[in-house]
Amino acid sequence: MPSPATTPAATPPPRWAVWAAHATTLVVLPSGLWRIALALGHPAGYTTEGFADFQSLDAKLWLLTLSVVSELLALLTLGLVRPWGETLPRWIPYVGGRVIPTRPVVVTAGLGALALTALWANIPWWWTYPHENMTDTGNLIVGILYQPLVLWGPLLAAVTLSYHRRRTRQRTTA
Length: 174
Hints:
By secondary structure, this protein is mainly alpha-helical. The protein has one domain. The chain has helices spanning about 15-40, 50, 55-75, 100-120, 135-145, 150-174. The relative contact order is 0.21.
């Protein structure tokens, strides 16, 4: 019989946590799509002079990388409400089928939630900062596209707390 510390939680996540985990992928999407538009050569709200900074190959690669990595990190939140976030899938060589320890997941996700909350805390005041290299319409649209990022950290924190409660509750009742 496996020890309680290695038994994955059999309790399903609450519906709100599943919705919140999926929402994290959606709050990252608008800004990522905007950066991809920039990388593909659309000025996306910049003036001609401002857009010139995004024409180099390095800038385009950075924009694409940032967009993809951001979305992949947001997708990791789904692991907090899916079975693969508790037990590694069997198809993974050497480690497949092993239970993922709760504490490292909670610490990593919790630190990520704090970092994201701090990183995007000033976004609600986007329009109070000068953006000389953007058109007025571009400034408005980009501000709107970045506003959902304010929710990323708090959503991740809520889902992490749910994961922690579910996993530790299972361990104490086993």
